[in-house]
Amino acid sequence: MALLDWIALVVFFIAWLGYGPLLRLIARRSGSLNADMLIVRDSWMTAMTHREMRLLDSQLMGHSINSASFFASTNLLLIAAVAGILFGGEAALRGFAAVGAEAVPIKLLEAKLALVLVCLARGFLDFIWSLRQMNYALALIGAAPEIHVEADRVAYGHATAQVLNPALSGFSQGVRGYYFALAAAAWLFGPLWLLLGVISAFSLLVWRQAASPAARAVRAARRLLERS
Q1: How many C-beta atoms surround the C-beta of residue 186 within 10 A?
Q2: Which of these, 12, 19, 1, lies nearest to 194 by C-alpha position?
Q3: Helical (H) or strand (E) element with 221
Q4: N or C: which end of the chain has fewer CB within 10 A?
Q5: What mean pLDDT value characterizes the chain?
Q6: pLDDT for residue 9
Q7: Within 10 Å of residue 70's Cβ, how many Cβ atoms?
Q8: Could you give the 3-state DSSP secondary structure of residue 98?
Q9: 1 near 108, Cβ under 8 Å?
């Protein structure tokens, strides 16, 4: 493997593993979409305890579960496709390389496909754990009792949010896996493409978290919820 491949691979892992710590740093300084949504979902679960009919909350959760299921199913299909090429023998690898990938030794081609597979597999595990936690949160919504003491309502809402927030954070991590899987797939065309792919994916993710119109709107809504 050439020096440029190693450099691109190191940059990839720095971006992939360093995205979470960087996002937490951004959240402490100026806020991020994920951090703001923690507060929004906490407010949602607290508001849920004040409603006699919680059909709306259940429907919203059902929509999230369906979305996570769709992404998990799609992810599994992609894993099967990449694994089929990776473990399909030399003929499958050479046939795939002939489609347009960079001409490299078979072992290096296997490493490139393995990187894509690892990104997809990590995302799949995130989606599965996210789905389980969403179902736990849905059960807590359905089991919410008639509480007359305000402090107990708030406590129950916070407890439910402590299950819901990690669930939807896991969903976000699973979606993030697609970004890095696409960046890893760019390596098939050469190390410069991998560098371009990971820088583009990383920059896009950070922009969407910190400066996109959605991030600014959610941040404004969070401030209103905190004052109410």
Answers
A1: 23
A2: 12
A3: helix 213-227
A4: C
A5: 89
A6: 92
A7: 11
A8: coil
A9: yes
